Automatic annotation (TrEMBL):
PANTHER family: SPECKLE-TYPE POZ PROTEIN (PTHR24413). It comes from Rhizophagus irregularis (strain DAOM 197198w). InterPro entries: SKP1/BTB/POZ_sf (IPR011333). It comes from the Eukaryota. This is BTB domain-containing protein.
Amino acid sequence: MLCYLYTNQIDWTNDNNGMDETTDENISFTIEIYCIADRYLLTDLRQRAKNRIFEELTVNNVAEIMFRLVPKYEDLKEPILSFMAENFEEVCNSKGFKDVLANPNDYTYYNRIMSEVLSQHFKIQKARLNK
């Protein structure tokens, strides 16, 4: 973070031997940067982190991000909701989604978010059937 403040650059690899692959550790680092940038009103860094979150979305991490971050950061909602709804079958089989299902009380807006995801998923399915 300090490096960013002085250079306006950030190393998204989180010292992962220079590897730039999507891992749980990388997405956690990106989310941490996003939250810090939001807190300290670093709009450019916040936007970069937001874009990076969208790039790093996978069926394995989207559920955790959706249920943990979206209630606090509404601007993340639409792209994450769309990704989750479009890939819902795969997401349902992921460890991340199963972890959310195992502990729904850990997520304040669990019911509302599930309702939105399912509603979006069914709209997508209906549109596919009508083609």
